Amino acid sequence: xxxxxxxxxxxxxxxxxxxxxxxxxxxxxxxxxxxxxxxxxxxxxxxxxxxxxxxxxxxxxxxxxxxxxxxxxxxxxxxxx
Length: 81
What we know:
The protein is mainly alpha-helical. It has one domain. 83% of the residues lie in helices and 0% in strands. It has four helices and no strands. Helix 2 (22-39) packs antiparallel against helix 3 (42-58), helix 2 (22-39) packs parallel to helix 4 and helix 3 runs antiparallel to helix 4. It starts with a helix and ends with a helix.
C-alpha cells in the first residue's frame, strides 16, 4: 500500500508506451482504485469504477480484466463500512 504512487507512475508509463495492452491498462485502473480506497476519495472511487465497467466491456476477451474487477465489490463494501 505504501508504494501506490510508485505503482501508479509505473503503470502510467507502461500504458503510455503500449496503449493497446489491456493488461497494463487494467492494472493501472486497479491501482487507481486501490489508491482511491486508501485515500478515502469517494469521487475518484466512483470514477474508477465506471472506468472498470467500460474497460471490461471493451476488453471482454481479457480474463485479467474480470479477475481484478471481481475484487472491486469486496473492497468497495469495506470502504462503505
